[in-house]
Amino acid sequence: MARFGWRFIVLGLVVLAMVTASYQLVMRYLAQQSHELEQRLNAEMEWVLVFSHDLEAGAVIGLDDLQQRKYPPSYISDDWLRPNDAMAIVGNSVQNFVSAGEPVMLGHLGRVRRSSFSDQLAPDDYAVTATVGIEQVHHGLLAVGNRVSLVAGGGGEPLRMLTNIEVLALDNQSKEYVGGALAVTITFRLKAEQAAIFEGFRRQGFALWLQHPEAEYSHVKSPLKPHLFTISKAGS
Predict the structure, then answer these.
(1) Sequence-separated (6 or more) residues with CB below 8 Å from residue 140
(2) H or E stretch including 51?
(3) Cα 128 from Cα 168, distance rounded (Å)
(4) What span, in angstroms and rounded, lies between the C-alpha atoms of 230 and 228?
(5) Residue 195: HSE in the Cβ half-sphere, 13 Å Cα cutoff
(6) What residues have CB less than 8 Å from 43, skipping those under 6 apart?
(7) How far apart are alpha carbons 26 and 32 in whole angstroms?
(8) How many Å apart are CA 3 and CA 13, to the nearest integer?
């Protein structure tokens, strides 16, 4: 009887070990399946904008009031805004109270202004476009982001200059020159006073001097005109 008792004990331990191992395998399998399902669902989810803070009605939205969060596509409606809309939202006000974590919707906002080329301008900047020739674009070497000096005058008149002017845009689609397409219009970033001066340059023609990208340039003074004096004899 004692022999059979030990056999039952050993058999019980073996069964317990098998059940434990099976349980661990099942739990590991379920955890793996759950992880794969979570990854698959996460890959299918889409980013949307949500409010990071509670905002009272009339509050102006700042960039720190926004964050992005993922939602299943089936939850997202057409009026939910996406991360690439963030800069168009900043500066608008909310029409009603919104809570942190709430998706940003068009209905929450006043007039939403979409971003455009003019967003590159500071409040006191102007984008001024002028027609140019092959010399002004340095035979195609001029590029967006370069800084230039705009020069008018010469030929007996004093030089007038606008220095450290940024090139905002070039048009390279309108006209063909020898050697390929070159810009026929160029857009500068100008302050109001500079823009007024440049309109005078435009009427009489101007040259464009390319500057070093990191150096600040000062106005170049025109050489003084020679003065001719007539010496006459005393009493004549």
Answers:
(1) 179, 180, 182, 183
(2) strand 46-51
(3) 9
(4) 7
(5) 12
(6) none
(7) 10
(8) 16
DSSP state of 102: P
Report whether 200 contacts 152 (CB < 8 A): yes
Q: CB atoms < 10 A from the CB of 132, how many?
A: 18
User: 3-state class of 82 per DSSP?
Assistant: coil
Query: How many residues can be counted in the chain?
Result: 236
For residue 48, list its beta bridge partners: 69
Tokens 């969060």 belong to residue: 69
Token couple for 178: 């020898």
Question: What phi-psi label fits residue 180: left (phi over 0), alpha (psi between -120 and 50 degrees) or beta?
Answer: left
State the Cα–Cα distance between residues 211 and 220, nearest whole angstrom: 13
- Whether residue 75 has pLDDT greater than 70: yes
Report the predicted TM-score, pTM, of the whole model to 2 decimal places.
0.49
Per-residue pLDDT reduced to its tens digit, 2-47 = 555 666 676 677 777 777 777 777 777 777 767 666 666 556 788 8
Other beta carbons within 10 angstroms of residue 189's beta carbon come to: 19
